[in-house]
């Protein structure tokens, strides 16, 4: 009684470029766009590095009681995460 998922159909759905207006009108349109973009290995690596940097900076900033480390580290981490969106 498990969930039957056709892996090829799901991959095709996620990897085909949908016709999305500049701003997604529905959650379904947004989600399809999001999955397609994050299926690329480079995007996942940049998100992992950026998120790791942001979390590390937040922890170091709290431990050292220096809010600038936390703020600058999180901003730099966000820039790394968003870099892929602006390169495409």
Brief overview, please?
This protein is mostly helical and 88 residues long. Helix 3 runs antiparallel to helix 4.
Topology:
Blueprint lengths: L6 H9 L11 H11 L3 H24 L2 H21 L1
What is the terminal separation in angstroms? 41 Å
Strand content: under 5%
Mean pLDDT: 78
Sketch the major β-sheet. none
Shape: elongated
Low-confidence stretches: none
Number of helices: 4
The run of helices and strands is HHHH
Radius of gyration, in Å, reads: 18 Å
Helix content: over 70%
Please count the beta strands (DSSP E, at least 2 residues each): 0
User: Structural class of the secondary structure composition?
Assistant: mainly alpha
Molecular structure report:
The protein has a domain at 41-88. The protein has 4 helices and no strands. The protein has helices at residues 7-15, 27-37, 41-64, 67-87. The longest helix has 24 residues, at 41-64. The protein starts with 6 loop residues before the first helix and ends with a helix.
Task: For the structure shown, list the relevant keywords.
mainly alpha, 88 residues
